[in-house]
Amino acid sequence: MTPVAGAAVLTAAEMRAAEARAFAGGDEPFAMMRRAGEACAHAIRRVSAGGEVLVLCGPGNNGGDGYVIATTLAAAGHPVRVAALAAPRTDSARQARDAWTGPIEALASAAPAPILVDALFGIGLTRALDDDAVASLKRLSTAARLTIAIDLPSGIDSDSGALLGCPTCADITLALGALKPAHLLQPAAAHCGAVRLLDIGIVADAATYSLAPPSLPSPNPASHKFNRGMVAVIKGRMAGAAELAASAAMHAGAGYVALLGATIPAAPHALVRRPLDDESLDDPRIGALLIGPGLGRDDAMRVLLEQALDTDHPLVIDGDALHLVTPERLCARRAPLILTPHAGEFAALFGEGQGSKLDRAREAARSADAVVVFKGADTVIAAPDGRARIASAASNWLSTAGSGDVLAGAIAACLATGFDPLDAAAAGVWLHGEAARQCGVAFIADDLARALAGARDAATKSL
After folding, report:
1. For residue 68, which of 106, 91, 36 has the smallest C-alpha distance?
2. pLDDT in tens, 47-73
3. What's residue 235's pLDDT?
4. In this model, does residue 267 exceed pLDDT 70?
5. Reduced to 3 states, what is the DSSP secondary structure of residue 58?
6. What are the φ and ψ backbone dihedral angles of 180, each rounded to 5 degrees?
7. Which residues contact 332 (CB under 8 A, 6 or more apart)?
8. pLDDT band at residue 462 using 50, 70 and 90 as cut-offs
9. pLDDT at site 126
10. In the chain, domain spans
11. Kind plus residue range of the DSSP H or E element containing 96
12. Which of 353, 374, 216, 231 is closest to 289 using CA atoms?
C-alpha cells in the first residue's frame, strides 16, 4: 500500500484523464481493472482473517473491480460470494464478470457474510442511491464484522464529499490509484473509515495533495533568535487571544516573538512586549506579522488592520480582522499573505461561493491573491496559483475556544522562517493537528500551544 500522507488527490475528471493517459500509452482498460481488483483482493485477505467475503457488484467499472476481487480471492482458496445490483454495462466490467465462474446472487436477497465488500458505485455516482439499494447495503453491512469499500463507499459524491442518500460507513476504504476529495472532505470522510491507497499504475498529474508531515528547519551553530524567525502579534480588544497566538508561535519554533500593544507583563517572560507604534511595526527583522486573534471589529481596529496591511511584512490575518477587509483590498497587497477563516469568517469575506469546499477555497485564494486556510473538521489550504492541500480529519476536541488562535500562531512561526506561504500554512495545520493528537482529550488551547513543541519533534522524526 502507498502512504496516504502527501498523496495526490484527484477529482473524478482528473482521475479519468490520468486513466486516459495510461490507455494512450498502451495500457489496456481491463488490465488496469485486473491490477486494481488483484490489489484489493490482496488487501482484503490481509484483514479478513479467513472470513467469508461477500462482494457487492454494481453495473459500472467499480462493479468490474468487484468481480476481479472475487475471482482473485476464489483462486487463492478464500471463501467468497458475489451479489449483483445489475448486469455490467462497460466492456471491462463484462470481461470481469465473465471471468467469475461462481454463482451471482441478487443483491436484494443475498445472505450476509462476515466481510462485506462494497463495489457497487465508485467515483462516477452523481445521484442518490435508490431505496432498495440503500436497504440492502444497510442490512448487509449491519450483519458484517467488517465493511470494505472499493474506491469510495457507495452513495458519495467523489468531488464534493456530499452524501448522495444514506451511504453506509465503511471500516476501510481502498482508494485506487489516487486519493479523491471525498476521502478527506466532510461529511463523506467520516463514512470512509481507514483509507488505504493502492497503486494501480496511474501517474497522477495533481495540483492537490493530502497534508504530509512538514520538513522544518532545526537550529544549527549559526542560529540566533532572529534568523530562526521573528513573529510580531498585534494585540486587540481581547488580549488573551493575542497572547495565546504568541505563545503558540514560540512553541512552534519561532526564535523571537513580540506582542505589540501589550502593557502588563505576564508569563511567559520569554514573550517580548513592545508598544504598538510605527517603530515596532517597521522593524525589518519581523518575518511574520499576525493580526486578528481577539482583535475586535470597531473602527479603531479597522485602522489598526490598515496599518498592518500597509507594511511589507509577510502577514497572517485571522479572526475578527477577516470581517474588516475585502478581497479587493487584500489583492492590492504585494507581500506574502495567509488568511485563516473558519466557515463563518469565510462567508463574511468571500460569500458562500459555489462548488465543493476545495473549489471555494481555490476561488477565494485567487480573488484575494493570498493563501487561504479554510478551517473546519476538514481543512483545505489553497494558493492563488491553484495548488492545494487537504488535511485529514483532526481531533474533534479542537472544537474549543482559542484553538484557532493557536493555529494562527503556529502558521506565523512557520511563515517567519521564510517558507513559501502555502508550505507555511500547511506546516502550521499539520503541527496543530499533531499537537491535538498528543494532547488526547478534553484539552484547552493553552495545552495545545504547549504541545506544539512535541508536534514539531514528531514532524522531524516522521521524515
Report:
1. 36
2. 999 999 999 999 999 999 999 999 999
3. 95
4. no
5. coil
6. -115, 155
7. none
8. confident
9. 85
10. 12-208, 230-462
11. helix 91-99
12. 231
- The yes/no answer on whether domain 230-462 falls in CATH 3.40.1190.20 is yes
Residue range 316-369, pLDDT digits in tens: 999 999 999 999 999 999 999 999 999 999 999 999 989 999 999 999 999 999
Q: Which helix (H) or strand (E) holds 247?
A: helix 239-251
Among 247, 249, 280, 281, which residue's Cα sits nearest to residue 266? 247
Q: Would residue 29 be called left, alpha or beta, if left means φ above 0 and alpha means ψ between -120 and 50 degrees? A: alpha
- The size of the chain, in residues, is 463
What torsion, rounded to 10 degrees, do the Cα atoms 233, 237, 238, 242 define? 0
In angstroms, the CA 103 to CA 452 distance is 56
> What's the angle, vertex CA 40, arms to CA 35 and CA 41, rounded to 5?
100
In the prediction, which pLDDT does 263 show? 67
Return d(Cα 253, Cα 217) in angstroms, integer: 9
Query: Would you say 393 and 436 are in contact if contact means Cβ atoms under 8 Å apart?
Result: no
C-alpha atoms less than 13 angstroms from C-alpha of 251 in its C-beta half-sphere: 25
Rg (CA), the chain: 25
User: Closest by alpha carbon to 99, among 66, 134, 62, 71?
Assistant: 71
User: In whole angstroms, how far apart are CA 374 and each of 358, 380, 385?
Assistant: 9, 5, 16
Neighbours of 125 (CB within 10 A): 22
- The neighbouring-strand residues paired with 306 are none
Ramachandran angles phi, psi of 206, nearest 5°: -120, 150
Which residue type, as a one-letter code, is found at position 171? Answer: D
The contacts of residue 355 (CB under 8 Å, 6+ apart) are 160, 363
Identify the three-state secondary structure at position 303: helix
Question: Which residues, including other chains, have CB under 8 Å from residue 182's CB and lie 6 or more apart?
Answer: 152, 156, 157, 158, 159, 160, 161, 188, 189, 192
3-class secondary structure, 398? helix
Q: pTM of this prediction?
A: 0.95
Superfamily (CATH) of domain 12-208:
YjeF N-terminal domain (3.40.50.10260)
